[in-house]
Specification:
Layout (H helix, E strand, L loop, with lengths): L11 H15 L6 H20 L4 H8 L7 H7 L3 E4 L12 E8 L2 E8 L5 H6 L7 H16 L4 E7 L6 H5 L2 H13 L5 E10 H5 L6 E5 L3 E3 L3 H8 L6 H8 L14 E3 L10 H20 L3 H13 L13
Parallel strand pairs: 3-4, 4-5, 5-6, 5-7, 6-8
Antiparallel strand pairs: 1-2, 2-3
Helix pairs in contact: 1-2, 3-11, 6-8, 10-11
Length: 324
């Protein structure tokens, strides 16, 4: 998949070159045409590489939200050989914003949990744009416990601006169920791998974000709050979202130094939205390699390492050392 969508504002130099290439390829063959096409393709690659190696935090957010970026259901089709969806939380209903089910990764059976935003307007409305309700997080935990019962690894795909903020969700215990999920995941007796594939916003991400390996795609973000939410609190206007994005330090360039994520998974040139297949190959390779490592550990070591990893997070300086 390439030339995805009309392009973001900062992608316009790439789009112009791609239009030039399309025009050149559509014309009849002429002298030197092959050389011109080759040179133009090299130029497109160079410009794309230059732009994407210098993205600002706000531009990274735009890429993470790109309309053509692959979602959880896309990866279910591209990464896994089989998927059998499981529905409902046995208490209230079936949250379409949270996908759960059995899958096969090569010869390994796994349980996949993931946020789903929806591709069309109808799908996005049904999925609440990837913002899960309490029943979604309860569904996720029930399926994780089912996986642990049968010794199946759990794979979580995180892609949400945050948990659903409506009154009904709060009445049904949104904050409580997210906290409960974090607690239960910390002691789940099976390997857990979590990958931020797009947006990793607030408690909505943390509700399925406690794992033995926590990774993020190169152009995703993982944050305590969305840039718009931060701007609304600090500057009383969403217009300051780019400034908030700079301050939050939530991109793949910042989070490894803070030990918030373990690994960064490289994206294809120009972002995952330009090549779904290559991005899926990268993710599959990461999952296979890390599952092999995690399965070699005993349950006791797995839980101990997971606990220590999250206990060690939170580096900060309370007071500068005195020079005297």
């Amino acid at each position: 998949m390439s030339n995805a969508g009309p392009g973001l504002a900062f992608e316009q130099p790439i789009c112009q070159l791609e239009q030039e290439l399309e025009s050149l390829e559509s014309n009849k063959a002429g002298n030197g045409k092959s050389a011109k096409i080759r040179d133009l393709k090299n130029r497109i690659a160079d410009v794309t590489r230059e732009i994407y190696s210098n993205l600002s935090p706000w531009e990274t957010v735009q890429v993470a939200r790109h309309q053509d970026r692959p979602y959880t259901r896309d990866y279910l089709n591209l990464v896994f050989d089989e998927f059998v969806e499981l529905h409902g939380d046995r208490k209230f209903g079936d949250d379409r914003a949270m996908l759960t089910g059995f899958a096969k990764l090569g010869h390994q059976k796994v349980m996949v949990i993931g946020h789903q935003k929806g591709r069309t307007v109808k799908e996005r409305t049904e999925c609440f744009f990837g913002c899960a309700h309490p029943e979604g997080y309860r569904k996720a935990m029930q399926k994780m416990q089912l996986a642990a019962k049968f010794n199946l690894p759990v794979i979580c795909f995180i892609d949400t601006p945050g948990a659903y903020p409506g009154i009904g969700a709060e009445e049904r215990g949104q904050a409580w169920v997210i906290a409960e999920n974090m607690y239960e995941m910390s002691r789940l007796k099976t390997p857990i791998i979590c990958i931020v594939i797009g947006e990793g916003g607030s408690g909505g991400a943390l509700g399925i974000g406690v794992g033995d390996r926590v990774a993020m795609l190169e152009h995703s973000y993982y944050s305590v709050i969305s840039p718009e939410g931060c701007a609304g609190i600090l500057w009383k206007s969403h217009e300051h979202a780019p400034k908030a994005a700079d301050a939050l330090k939530f991109t793949s360039k910042h989070l490894p130094d803070l030990d918030v994520v373990d690994d960064i998974i490289p994206e294809p040139l120009g972002g995952a939205h330009r090549d779904h297949q290559q991005m899926a190959i990268q993710i599959k390779q990461y999952l296979v390699e890390n599952l092999k490592q995690l399965k070699s550990n005993s349950v006791e070591d797995l839980l101990s390492n997971r606990y220590e990893k999250f206990r060690a997070m939170g580096k900060f300086l309370e007071k500068a050392e005195s020079n005297q």
